[in-house]
């Protein structure tokens, strides 16, 4: 249990350093023999890390508890003694109150494998329940991360009154089943860590005088490596850059009020004040306006022009009713959206989405609406694709076999960006003085051996159908020889004639493309076919029409 808890704590530390390094994290052990806390006011409570920003030193401290040496170090440093969860909660309350900063969200996770930590001591149980209630009254969210123990973990025995109720449908709440695997435990921690923050909060106008408050959330954002920070080379202090605007002729510093903007129209420079530019940008106040409903089949795949966002009404009753109604009617809502001030309006489609949960009651898909941004007429482009020879039905069927063999269920969360993962592992190795960074498995590389095993002879069969005999894509085409014009001249190549039955066999197998252009031309002459072009596909089409008649 302790080994798994240590790995989860390390995972929380390293993820916080990457995702939100300004969050404050503390690590407190209770039930220890030694005591270490502010003023040593509480016995059997050991504050391993005070409430502060996570850093490399803390990760190294947690790594020191690894293995047999780590267990020996923990026994020597903290030991094992009486348990008082009430004192531990009181100590955590003092850690929160000692911070002078205003904390937007406070969370306390209890890792334990004891369903009755006080062994039935009613006084200690009452003290823990009272202190947990005080913490919850001050805005602290208490979560239980319990592990498997012999005989099972009886949650209602003690912890039902300790743990905070779920804030909304998206929160996990009290999990009755214990964490049996490290992955399960880490998944729960991640579910607790990620706080939903709205990109925008708007009013959805359903009609005159009928408005619904909604929040818009980004469900997927492209992850990028953090930008480099400029440092002063002598002191390694961070430097700031400032931009100033000067007059090109006098060199005097210009104030923002002295700067105007212009745009050339018809070879004339149209000068505008800053207020005029802002007035031109403003179309209407931010919000969503319902225009109507459309059948779901009217929404096409090529309408996708940018990543979709997620809309969730603030009123829970409206969410369930509206989603169910749209799903029953198989329609989407068409709206006009202005997400921020001075933003241009866009047409969006609100596509309903049902709630889904897994076996552990962890929400996989939230109920609400996916906001699909629709293109304007100006956004649509007329393409002129190159003319390519059409594949025969036999070639198409062969490729269908290949596609069916290589199909698999794709999940975006199963693939990590190898560049970003390697970047953070390199930083972690430098910060923690590691000999070498952890190896990163490149999950986007194709598994060649597995692909070859699935396809078998299909690749060679497809190659024989499409490409000429002896085709090798890795070899360069041979340079054309110049015709020898001297002396006796070049000898003419003998004509190559193909019997009619062989031509019909090639046509049925779809292998006419394997014949060379001279052979196809000779075959056309053989059947009296007039050909104006010299392209191979034109000759094949003419022969196919003649042999099929």
Description:
With 549 residues, this protein is α+β, with helices and mostly antiparallel strands. It has four domains: 1-192, von Willebrand factor, type A domain (Rossmann fold, 3-Layer(aba) Sandwich); 198-221 and 284-379, Ku70, Chain: A, Domain 2, CATH 2.40.290; 393-466, Ku70, Chain: A, domain 4; 500-548, Transcription Termination Factor Rho, Rna-binding Domain, Chain A, Domain 1, CATH 1.10.720. Helices cover 32% and strands 17% of the residues. The chain is built from 15 helices and 15 strands. The strands form five sheets. A seven-stranded mixed β-barrel has the order 5-6-10-15-12-11-9. A two-stranded antiparallel sheet has the order 1-2. A hairpin with a 2-residue loop joins strand 7 and strand 8 (268-272). Helix 9 runs antiparallel to helix 12 (458-466). It starts with a helix and ends with a helix. The model is unreliable at 190-194 and 485-491 (pLDDT under 50). It is found in: Nucleus. Its EC number is 3.6.4.12.
List keywords for this structure.
Ku70, Chain: A, domain 4; alpha+beta; Rossmann fold; 15 strands; Ku70, Chain: A, Domain 2; 7-stranded mixed barrel; 549 residues
């Amino acid at each position: 249990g302790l080994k798994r808890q240590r790995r989860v704590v390390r995972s929380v530390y390293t993820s916080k350093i990457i995702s939100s390094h300004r969050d404050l994290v503390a690590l407190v052990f209770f039930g220890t023999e030694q005591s270490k806390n502010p003023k040593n006011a509480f016995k059997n409570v050991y504050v391993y890390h005070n409430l502060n920003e996570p850093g490399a030193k803390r990760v190294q401290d947690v790594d020191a508890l690894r293995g047999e040496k780590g267990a020996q170090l923990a026994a020597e440093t903290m030991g094992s003694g009486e348990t008082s969860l009430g004192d531990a909660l009181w100590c955590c309350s003092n850690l929160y109150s000692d911070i002078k900063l205003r904390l937007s969200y406070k969370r306390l996770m209890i890792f334990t494998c004891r369903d009755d930590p006080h062994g039935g001591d009613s006084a200690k149980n009452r003290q823990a329940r009272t202190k947990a209630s005080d913490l919850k009254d001050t805005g602290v969210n208490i979560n239980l991360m319990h592990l498997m123990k012999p005989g099972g973990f009886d949650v209602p025995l003690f912890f039902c009154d300790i743990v905070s109720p779920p804030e909304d449908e998206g929160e996990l709440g009290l999990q009755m089943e214990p964490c049996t695997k490290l992955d399960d435990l880490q998944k729960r921690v991640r579910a607790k860590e990620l706080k939903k923050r709205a990109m925008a909060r708007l009013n959805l106008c359903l009609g005159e005088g009928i408005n619904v408050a909604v929040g818009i959330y980004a469900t997927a954002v492209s992850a990028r490596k953090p930008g480099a920070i400029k440092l002063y080379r002598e002191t390694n202090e961070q430097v700031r850059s400032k931009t100033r605007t000067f007059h090109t002729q006098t060199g005097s510093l210009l104030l923002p009020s002295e700067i105007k903007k212009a745009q050339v129209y018809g070879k004339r420079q149209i000068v505008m004040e800053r207020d005029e530019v802002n007035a031109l940008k403003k179309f209407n106040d931010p919000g969503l306006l319902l225009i109507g409903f459309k059948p779901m089949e009217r929404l096409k795949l090529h309408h996708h022009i940018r990543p979709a966002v997620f809309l969730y009404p603030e009123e829970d009753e409206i969410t369930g009713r509206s989603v169910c109604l749209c799903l029953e009617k198989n329609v989407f809502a068409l709206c006009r959206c202005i997400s921020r001030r001075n933003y241009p309006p866009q047409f969006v489609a609100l596509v309903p989405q049902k709630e889904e949960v897994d076996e552990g009651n962890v929400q996989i898909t939230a109920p609400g609406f996916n906001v699909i941004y629709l293109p304007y007429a100006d956004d649509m482009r007329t393409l002129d694709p190159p003319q390519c020879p059409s594949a025969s039905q036999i070639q198409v069927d062969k490729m269908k076999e290949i596609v069916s063999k290589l199909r698999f269920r794709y999940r975006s969360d199963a693939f990590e960006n190898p560049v970003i993962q390697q970047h953070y592992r390199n930083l972690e190795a430098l910060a923690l003085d590691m000999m070498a960074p952890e190896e990163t498995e490149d999950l986007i590389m194709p598994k060649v051996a597995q692909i070859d095993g699935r396809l078998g002879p299909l690749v060679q069969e497809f190659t024989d159908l499409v490409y000429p005999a002896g085709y090798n894509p890795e070899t360069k085409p041979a340079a054309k020889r110049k015709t020898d014009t001297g002396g006796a001249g070049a000898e003419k190549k003998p004509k190559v004639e193909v019997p009619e039955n062989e031509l019909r066999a090639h046509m049925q197998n779809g292998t006419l493309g394997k014949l060379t252009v001279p052979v196809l031309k000779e075959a056309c002459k053989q059947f009296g076919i007039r050909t104006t072009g010299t392209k191979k596909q034109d000759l094949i089409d003419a022969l196919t029409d003649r042999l099929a008649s």
